[in-house]
Specification:
seven-stranded mixed β-sheet; binds S-adenosylmethionine; two-stranded antiparallel ribbon; alpha/beta; 10 helices
């Protein structure tokens, strides 16, 4: 078996440890008919993250966690598959499948190496899954490989601006101060956190998507709704009303003639 990269091992242990803290949010999202996204729970009707065409489509959620994004896709007529490498997160997802009477395949594995053949899916999606915990130079080529021509990659990540301004102590909200360089940003480790995140400058992300045969269709800078609240301390509403906390990227696999 190929060596597992250090970030994959460390993030697996981290998510096994964190999983119990994500059960309540997972249930709230499984219960919700309308998808809501990110740390401020922005309604789908305000942000439009889901692909326009879902019914009858094959979808893969990369880093599915508790599985609610796949559940939203399944309820809209897609055939989702969720992959995650945390057994504890998958256990929560399986519990919710039973509780809500919705079944779809859940795989334990690294989203950078997915055991499906080329062109198996019409949609690849990630909300704070592979999109921040996997190396973009590994997971984005893999997502592109898994998509059929014309298929769509959609992912939500913490914004590059928040990554530049986020405090080392994640319990303190970001301020209007750039704390780290943009150039060279890739692997990001926060002090006292055992996990490893990945963030690319937007220019590098565009280069990577294009190099993988994906055409960038949209970059949505997410804004919190009027009645927004959050349980996450690393950013407050005042900052989030002025700067994007999150970015949603949409890209489509080119059709080759
Ligand atoms: C914040 S959760 C997001 C998932 C989903 N939106 C949710 O909230 O349940 C991040 C997930 O990414 C998963 N993850 C991290 N690294 C991964 C990898 N290399 N392969 C697959 N999943 C991974 C974690 O196990 C975790 O369940």
């Amino acid at each position: 078996m190929a060596d597992v990269p250090e970030h994959v091992e460390r993030n697996e242990a981290y998510w096994d440890d964190q999983a119990h803290d994500y059960v309540a949010d997972g249930r709230r999202n499984w219960e919700s008919e309308e998808p809501t996204w990110g740390v401020f729970s922005v309604p789908e009707s305000e942000v439009g993250m889901l692909p326009k065409e879902i019914e009858g489509r094959d979808a893969i959620e990369l880093g599915c966690g508790t599985g609610y994004v796949s559940a939203w896709l399944a309820r809209r007529g897609a055939r989702p598959v969720g992959i995650d490498n945390s057994e504890a997160q998958l256990a929560t997802a399986r519990t919710f499948q039973r509780e809500f009477g919705l079944d779809f395949p859940l795989l334990k594995g690294n989203a950078e190496e997915v055991p499906y053949s080329d062109g198996s899916f019409d949609i690849a999606i990630s909300e704070y899954g592979a999109s921040i915990w996997c190396d973009p130079y590994r997971w984005i080529p893999e997502a592109a490989r898994l998509l059929r021509p014309g298929g769509e990659l959609v992912f939500l990540v913490g914004s590059i601006l928040l990554t530049l301004c986020g405090r080392d102590d994640g319990n303190e909200p970001a301020r209007d101060e750039l704390l780290r360089p943009l150039f060279g940003m890739h692997q990001v480790e926060w002090p006292d956190e055992p996990s490893i995140e990945f963030h690319l400058p937007q220019g590098k992300m565009i280069d990577l998507l294009r190099d993988c045969g994906l055409s960038v269709e949209q970059l949505i800078e997410v804004r919190p709704p009027d009645d927004a609240t959050t349980r996450y301390p690393h950013v407050d509403l005042d900052w989030a009303r002025r700067y994007p906390v999150e970015e949603i990227w949409r890209a489509r696999k080119l059709r080759v003639s």
